[in-house]
Each structure stands twice: as C-alpha cells, then as structure tokens.
Amino acid sequence: MKKKYHIQIRIVILTLFFGLTKSIYAQQSVSFNSPVNTKTRPIELQLKKTYELEKAGVFASNEFDGARLSDFIQENDSTAIVMIKPENTPINNSGYYAFNTWSSSPKPFYFTFQYPKGYNHRYIPKLKINNDWNAIDPSSVYMKDSIVTIKLNLSKNPILVAAQEVQSSTDVKNWYTSIVAGKEDYVTIKSAGKSVLGKNIPVLDIYKGDQKNKKIIVLLTRQHPPETTGYYAFQSFLSTILDGSELSDVFLKTYRVIAFPIANPDGVDLGHWRHNHGGIDLNRDWSVYNQPEIKQIVKFINNASEEDEGAVILGLDFHSTKKDIFYTNKNRANTSMPNFIDYWFAGLERNIPNYKVNESSGNSQQPVSKGWFLYGHDAVGITYEIGDATPKEDILVKGQVSAKEMMKLLVYIIKP
C-alpha cells in the first residue's frame, strides 16, 4: 500500500515538473543587443463625448471603437481646432485621429489639426460617407507651416474623418469569421488569451490532416493600431492561403499556419497612435514579454511548436509605414531556409507588374518580432510593411502574389 502511494506521489511530482518545464519553455526570453524597457507605463484615456460648437451648429464625436479626438474647439465662424493627443509619450510620430462630424444645417466648414509640441500631421485624411471610404480630395487640404486644415461640406449626415480606415476589433472578428465559414474542417478559431481590458486575442490555426510534425508559418498584424494598410495585406495574404486552390490544398497538407489577425485589440479600440493599454510599443516586447499580448502570443506559438513537434520556419509581421518596404535579417545562413528571401523576392518581381522589391536588411538589435523569429527559432523573420497611402487594389495584388509565391517555394522548391 505504501509503495503504491509513493508511486502516485512520484507521478504527481513528475507531472508538475514537466508541466512547469513546458510553461518555462513557452515563455523563455530571447536576448537582444539593445534591450528596451517594456514595463507598463501610464496612459491618458480620451474623454468619450460628443462635442458641440453651439454658435456654428457643428458637432464632433469620438464615441465609437477606434476613435481618437482629444478636444474640439471653435476658432472662428467657419473653423474648428481638432486637438489630437497620443496615449502617452515618448511615442512614434504617428498622429492618429478618427471622429464623426456633422452639422445642424448644410454648410462648408474647416478643421485645423493640432498636435502636442514635437509631433505633426502624418496621415492624409480618409472620409467615410454613406458607408464608403475614400481619401479626401486634395483640393480640400490646406497646409501652412506644417499645420494642416481640411474643408468638409457638412450636413446632418455624419462624416467619419480618420487618419486611416477604421478597423476595430469587432470589424476584424467579422472579417475572420466570414473567411473561415465553410472551412471549419481545417481552420480552427482559437484564443491566445485576453488583453488587459479583457479583449480576445484571436488565433487562426490552419492545417489539413494531422498537425503533428508540420512545420509552422506564423502571420501576425496590428501590433500598432493605425496600421491598417498592413492589415489589408495580411487579409489578402491569408485569404489566398485559404482560396481552395490545388496549391493551397497541397500547402496546407504539408504545413501549418498560425495567424494572429489583431495583436493589440485594446490599442486598436482605444484609438491609440502606437501603444497598447500598458502604454508600450508591443513590437519592442519580444524579449522578456512584460505585456500580456506578446507574452500570450509567444506562449501559443512555442506551445504549438513543442507539443506538436513542428519547427517554426517563417514569421511574417504585417505593418504600415510611409512606403512599401520589407525589413529582413542579414543572418540567413543558419536559418531553416537560407535562400527563402532571395527566391521569394525574385518571385514577387516576376509576378507583380512593374514592381521592384524595396528591402532593408539588418539583424534586429531591439526586441522586435523579426528578431525573435531569428534568435528564438532560427527561423526567417520579416517585417512586411505597406505604405500609408498604397492603393487598396495594389495591396490586394501584393498580398495575393506574395502568398502564392511563398506556397510555391515551400511546396515545390525549398521544402525545409
């Protein structure tokens, strides 16, 4: 009886040991030459309200997910000052704004954007009128000494004015739910965990057959809230992987894709310029994982790789910046696919009309995702950047072609 009891105790101890070991592996830190302090910092929340300029009969509201409006002040009979402040500082100069505006009677009205000292206007305004998004007519934009003013023809019908098209966590959920419909036998919607505000961090786990021993490709986007052009490239890329083609079928029988369509749901819905609710740039937290979003994403990836014995071979992180560019690591010889980047870029240039790849290569010094893939998994890591003003039709083509060329390489040529 005593012997049986001791055996049971050992089993419990071993179970706890291996569970702890797995947990430690899932959150193992990755070293970088230039560490960044990613401990939580205070943020300033917007006051959510509808502003009224009584004398002008003009209104503005930030009462929706993804809004950013700090104050709305009448300057004169025809102009309002639009105050835009970031969630905290220091911060990247990405002055994001989004608000609804309307008037009690039809009239032209001017809006002058004002930012804190040291920050200025980055984004060309996008207008959502009658549910359609379009960039503002350039003739309605005025600049004087870096101060930007826009002219709108107001009515009782609200116009949504935004730095980039608003894609809230609800919009993202509606999108990935729709593309998964009918594909549930090989696409599973999972959760990596919750954000500080309790918002879901969704994951699409994609493969055909048994997940065991399948090498893993990781896709992620929206670490930085306003970067929706990168998100649109992610949409196009993932939709192509799921298009039901013969290439897609062979690819998903061979590989596993783990896709994170919104890494920073709090920051997105709060209308942040750059950071999460913890006041941190999540793409500087890929070392010690102080922020819950990256901590849980890393844990999900590492657990999937460890439990199902599938090496992570490629990580693509979709962002936006001033122009299309790929940020790559110079260190490739020791990765799972030393020639992938050269072959892939050549395929893009062959198949996208009049296209030349813009690459900036350098091993990550700060703890960003592309460095984490390299240093943590000996995998190819790429930051896939789309320009702020790249037309949507061009983004669609680039997303499609880059996904197809990746699948072709991994199925027929490289076979890591």
- Helical amount: 25-40%
Q: What value does the average pLDDT take?
A: 94
Shape estimate: globular
Structural class by SSE content: alpha+beta
Share of residues in strands: 25-35%
**Euclidean distance between termini CA atoms:** 52 Å
In what order do the strands lie side by side in the largest sheet? 12-13-15-14-16-19-17-18
Please give the largest β-sheet: 8 strands, mixed
Unreliable segments of 5+ consecutive residues: 1-25
Order of helices and strands: HEEEEEEEEEEEHEEEHHEHHEEHEHEH
Could you tell me the radius of gyration in angstroms? 24 Å
Number of β-strand runs:
19
Helix run count: 9
What's the oligomerization state?
Answer: single chain
What is the strand and helix layout of this fold?
Layout: H1 2-26, E1 50-53, E2 58-61, E3 71-76, E4 79-83, E5 98-103, E6 107-114, E7 126-129, E8 132-135, E9 141-144, E10 147-154, E11 159-162, H2 169-180, E12 187-194, E13 200-206, E14 215-221, H3 228-241, H4 246-254, E15 255-260, H5 265-270, H6 292-307, E16 312-321, E17 325-328, H7 340-351, E18 359-361, H8 369-377, E19 380-387, H9 392-413
Parallel strand pairs: 4-6, 14-15, 14-16, 16-19, 17-18
Antiparallel strand pairs: 1-2, 2-5, 3-4, 5-11, 6-10, 7-8, 7-11, 9-10, 12-13, 13-15, 17-19
Helix pairs in contact: 1-6, 3-9, 4-9, 7-9
